[in-house]
Specification:
The chain has a three-stranded antiparallel sheet with strand order 1-2-3. Helix 2 packs parallel to helix 12 (about 335-355) and helix 4 (about 110-125) runs antiparallel to helix 11. The protein is mostly helical. The mean pLDDT is about 85. The chain is built from twelve helices and three strands; from the N terminus they run αααβββααααααααα.
């Protein structure tokens, strides 16, 4: 493994170790209250992180160009899984959403799988010498975003859309094509918000947000603001969070950063953000240095969906964007997300292996 590959691998493991600590801090009380075992979440997450680290190493040993023949079958298989989430008994409906498949021995989230299979397919397709039709891209783009959005999972559909748009742009798209894609995305986004009352309520709550008057703000946003605001400059201290005592919803997944910000303050938040920035920069270096177009687009695609996901999560915690239910990469609780993120890291490491260690060579 090259030096840049080692840097990416160890910064990711370091991020996951921090995530394990944050998860234990945020979940121990609610796990004891609802499950009777305060170590429930952390024990499961340790398993997922360990498996992820092993998977990343295994995938990194596979030359990424060998993924090329599996690009189309992988995407088609994932699209089938996205349809199956609506068909019981395979599909599970939890909290009004159809996002999971119960395979008996494991529960998987196909929208997480889509991030990597779509990345591989787009890179393979757009890297080909024969220019593909814009209309074909629009159909693929619309189908993937639509299947995720109707689960409903507007946050992940936004990540998928951003990945598609970024990779298509980097492949040499025309400006008028990009303008049309963004226009269609905005119209579709407005339509998806309008058809669901809870999304309208979230948008109205965000648009009417006023730090001097929280009467119109949703309960979830209020609790996030209390957590983040209580942290101040240096935080209330590790283990001293108040919001983790079942006040803040989704404190192990979507809102886990708010607990961390409460305990470590602005200093800790900047530290965590700097790790994500470091991971992003290393990924960008890999994308720049790799020679072939397939590798460049694939690296850019992976970097995009990981970075956009982190940005969407952190932005919603700081109330910079409307609240969306997406996990914080390598931090939030969840097996599907953790494994897919590490597999994606493994692909990036595989790409990094092809970069010459001696720039003069």
């Amino acid at each position: 493994m090259s030096k840049i590959g080692y840097s990416l691998y160890f910064i990711t493991i370091f991020l996951s170790l921090i995530g394990l600590f944050i998860l234990y801090e945020s979940s121990s009380y609610t796990a004891l209250l609802h499950i009777g075992d305060k170590y429930y979440f952390i024990k499961n997450q340790i398993i997922w992180v360990f498996l992820g680290i092993i998977l990343a190493l295994i995938v990194s040993r596979i030359p990424y160009k060998k993924l090329y023949p599996f690009a189309l079958p992988g995407l088609v298989g994932t699209l089938i899984l996205l349809v199956l989430v609506f068909i019981p008994p395979l599909g599970l409906e939890l909290k009004g959403s159809n996002r999971w498949l119960d395979l008996g021995f494991i529960i998987v989230q196909p929208s997480e799988i889509l991030k990597i299979t779509l990345s591989i397919y787009l890179a393979a397709w757009l890297a080909s010498t024969e220019r593909k039709k814009f209309s074909s891209f629009l159909i693929l783009f619309g189908l993937c975003v639509f299947l995720v959005a109707i689960e409903p999972d507007l946050g992940t559909s936004l990540i998928v859309a951003a990945t598609c748009i970024t990779v298509y742009f980097l492949s040499g798209a025309k400006l008028k094509e990009m303008a049309l894609i963004i226009g269609v995305m905005l119209i579709a986004g407005i339509a998806l918000i309008k058809i669901e009352p809870y999304r309208v309520a979230r948008l109205m709550s965000f648009s009417n947000f006023d730090t001097n008057d929280l009467s119109t703000t949703s309960y979830h946003v209020k609790q996030m603001l209390i957590a983040v605001g209580s942290g101040g400059l240096s935080g209330v201290g590790l283990g001293n969070s108040i919001q983790k005592y079942a006040y803040l919803p989704e404190n192990t997944t979507d809102s886990i950063f708010a607990i961390y910000a409460e305990e470590t303050g602005l200093v800790g938040s900047i530290f965590l953000l700097s790790i994500y920035v470091g991971q992003l920069l290393i990924g960008c270096i890999i994308a720049i240095k790799v020679k072939d177009k397939f590798g460049k687009l694939l690296a850019c695609s992976i970097i995009t969906f990981l970075s956009v996901q982190a940005l969407v999560n952190l932005g919603s915690q700081a109330v910079l964007i409307p609240l969306t239910g997406v996990p914080l990469p390598f931090i939030s609780y969840g097996g599907s997300s953790m494994l897919i993120n590490y597999i994606s890291m493994g692909v990036l490491l595989s790409i990094a292996r092809t970069i010459p260690t001696n720039s003069k060579k």
